[in-house]
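Sample 1 of the test manifest.
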Amino acid sequence: MSNFLPPSVQVWIPEIIQLFYLLATGVFIVGIKRLGSPATARSGNQLAALGMLIGVIVTLFDQQILSFEFIIAGIVIGSAIGAFAAKKVEMTAMPEMVAIFNGFGGGASALVAWGEFSRAAPAAFGIQDLVTIGLSILIGSITFTGSFIAFGKLKGFISGNPVTFPGQNIFNLLLTLCTFGLVGWFAVDPNAQIAFWLIFGIALLLGVLTVMPIGGADMPVVISLLNSYSGLAAAMAGFVINNNLLIISGALVGAAGLILTNIMCKAMNRTLTNVLFGAFGGSNSTTGSPAADTDRTVRETTPEDVALQCAYADKVIITPGYGLAVAQAQHVLKEVADKLEARGVEVKYGIHPVAGRMPGHMNVLLAEADVPYDQLYDMEQINPEFKSTDVVLIIGANDVVNPAAKTETGSPIYGMPILNVDEADRTIIFKRSLSPGFAGIDNELFYRESNQMFFGDAKDSLQKLSQALNDV
Amino acid sequence: MSALIFNLFIFVLASFVGFELISKVPPTLHTPLMSGANAISGITIIGALVVAGQTGSIYAQWIGLVAIIFATINVVGGFMVTDRMLEMFKKKDKKEDTDE
């Protein structure tokens, strides 16, 4: 595109492009900053999109770009697919969507490195270039397949249980070391085609092998981590093509992903190593004591009874979990909350940081149902309030309210911060059955005097409750 | 200073900026932050444009084409879906004033 400009301007194009990249960098930083507060978040995202647009447009003036057929075709196809997916996706399917977009980003970074390498004869590259090309392909490919496996697990195509085989961790570790060795070989001898393809192949395989053993409920950690990887992959691609805009943006995303990963790990009181290599839990885990303990009984309740208790309460707290998303019950839940508020009951939502399948999953679902965000409370904010609460409605959540995390030192979830629902006068658990949650741990709360069980699909149960509230 | 070292400086400093910028995001915004950041990682599209637009190697151009498609899905989809989410985040509005 630069040849449309007068020659006197053309001389300056590389500098001008860099200055615009600098501008785009600034816009990204301000955009991310604004994403940090609910009031400014939307404009922050739009700013970031503007930064991207600036970056793309000025790049088209790059003097290396001489043909536009592939560019136009690529942008048209990619935009159509991206826009279609973004418009169509259900809010409950957001974790899958984020995972798959992430995979495409990582894949693109690997392809950029590959394309850059295949532009010229291997001998034209210095060792430093080759190392960055190798690493970019490595990280990009792991992100690509890893994200697709995460997508499959979230979508249910692939079992949400940890899929393991004996010696898996050792095997993965050896493979990882092996790829680093290959990157070294490739850097010293770029003509070694086999090294190049092995890096590609093993990295793709590693993405699969490292995500397969991770249980469904650990997905918030994995998605955050893959997000961080996709940033790193972009930064690596920036090293390959010597582009500061890519390096900076990639580093920002990498940092964001790492922070979220860390927050999620803390919220589960687990280390990242434990999440990645522990193969912890699964949706149908067979460990843990079965719920059929004969000497303990649960109190089952009816919609009418729940309606009565809630309607005459002063304060009700709702603690949602993944079950709410599965049942797509967020709208009915809001309906119930509205009816209670209309009666003068104070309704709040207590959200555990790892409730759901990605960071902030519940917040997005409830926002979709028009629940104002100032009615949603974090764990630290809501925990002191349970003591003064009449009724807690626990909807599709289990481990995040299990008192064993506080009391039973032997329990696998011991030490995990939980919502202190057991301090409330009454808890009502909306659940399909007595089966233990993903961690496979029995929940002592079920059998407490103060607890009642409301069995059934969350959406059906809430609909019944909503109807019963009409008659109270 | 070699280009690699210079780039490393940029990378490390930018990472620190990232940590500072993001460390205090409220949980409500974790999902939009993640999907917005995810869209930004599609910045790799800039590399893809150069690979697909040069005319030295048709083989590289095809790779560039796929890279552009992937990156554009990431960018366009990511920003749009984030906007869709953020559009829903509202403060309490007037209709709830009737509550106690």
